[in-house]
Predict the 3D structure of the following.
Amino acid sequence: MDVAQDTDRMYMLNTRHLLKKNYPLMFGAVRLGKNYVSYHLMSVYASPDVTMSPELKKRMQGKACFNFKEVDERLFKELAKITKEGAKRFSNEKFVEGLRQAQSAAAQKRKASR
């Protein structure tokens, strides 16, 4: 993976896989907000079958973001496991090719609806 951003407020990793318009496939990011820390994990968005505890699910904002106002070691361990599984999926070329195809189909659908 490649570091795409590393500032005081944001750390972002991209995979080396290229998607539409040669943009890299983002793996994840950590963003320091005013009142919380956001943990973005794109493999959760790309794999809706990921299982997680109801407590972790409550931390979700949208489809791939978890917000934390305080340290929760148990949830962090669960998130670490999900992150490791996501890294494994995102390193699988067949999985990434499926993402490319889904992205292409969605773009064609949008174009057809115009």
Q: What stands out?
A: Strands lie at 2-6, 10-18, 24-32, 37-41, 60-61, 65-68.
